[in-house]
Amino acid sequence: MIRRFKDRGGFPEFRALSNCFIAHFLQHYRDSETVWPDILLPVPLHPSRLRARGFNQALLLARRLSRHTGIPVLAHSCQRRSGTAQRGLDAQARLHNMQGVFSVRTGTALTPGMRLAIIDDVVTTSATTQAMAAVMHSTAAARIDVWALARSNHQPES
To answer: By its UniProt entry, which PANTHER family does this protein fall under (predicted)?
Structure first.
């Protein structure tokens, strides 16, 4: 379902997946009594990837979650520099590929001490979310949660 959503714009699949995502998000914070994030930060796509796909799946997910929780989305606070797509890379190549890829845009609403939630579609090696979290931590975050539709155990062969 995730692949149909990402690669073919399968919005019926997105609706089903995002309903489950939202339910788990709400249940987690209700059960753990952890304070909700202040901001939702979707993992940005490189502009060329965004043009090719036509949408950012993490941004769509963050916006839908925001409508259900009232947590604001900062869609353009983090930018992604060019780099090789992560799909197909092994764990070591993914980590190397993410070095220096993200930066915080000036003039964003991020302030020190915020609780942030990075939103992504699939986490495989966590290289992307770790790189984004490192940049956010150095800028503003007191706590960073990572939320994704799926955690993949599939590791491409080198």
So the answer is: DNA UTILIZATION PROTEIN YHGH (PTHR47505:SF1)
d(CA 75, CA 100): 19
Instruction: Report the number of secondary-structure helices (H) and strands (E) in the chain.
Output: 6, 5
112 pLDDT tier (thresholds 50, 70, 90): confident
41-63 pLDDT tens trace: 999 988 888 888 889 999 999 99
Q: State pTM to two decimals.
A: 0.84
pLDDT at 27 over 70: yes
Distance CA 63, CA 73 (A): 7
Q: What's the token pair of residue 122?
A: 């699939």
Return the domain boundaries, the chain.
2-151
DSSP letter string, 76-105:
TSEEE-----STT--HHHHHHHTTT-EEEP
Kindly give the pairing relationship between strand 39-42 and strand 114-123: parallel
- The pLDDT value recorded for residue 50 is 84
CATH topology of domain 2-151: Rossmann fold (3.40.50)
